[in-house]
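Inverse folding, one chain.
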């Protein structure tokens, strides 16, 4: 199974959460791939989009797939760790994959 890359860019906050939720729900429905959340161009994230990522992880696990967070800068890694989500963090396996629309 291939990975599908979704890039987060800029500030990912409560205002971005509805678009992120819609995009990721669509992905879970129409794709059979695992999901890579690429944080390389993300400058901020708060609790609302993290909740969306947790929902997506749950939905993917229910169908035997997984979500991984890649390219997280130190501050973003610490944010995920503080929320108890270090198991989502991963090294970028390929820097390849496909690109979905970007939340911004």
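Residues assigned per position:
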């Amino acid at each position: 199974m291939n990975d599908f890359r979704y890039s987060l860019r800029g500030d990912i906050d409560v205002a971005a959460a509805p678009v992120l939720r819609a995009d990721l729900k669509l992905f879970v429905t129409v794709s059979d791939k695992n999901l890579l959340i690429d944080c390389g161009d993300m400058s901020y994230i708060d609790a609302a989009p993290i909740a969306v990522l947790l929902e997506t992880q749950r939905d993917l696990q229910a169908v035997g797939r997984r979500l991984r967070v890649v390219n997280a800068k130190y501050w973003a890694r610490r944010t995920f760790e503080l929320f108890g989500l270090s198991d989502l963090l991963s090294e970028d396996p390929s820097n390849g994959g496909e690109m979905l629309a970007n939340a911004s």
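The chain has a mean pLDDT of 89. The two ends are 28 Å apart (CA to CA).
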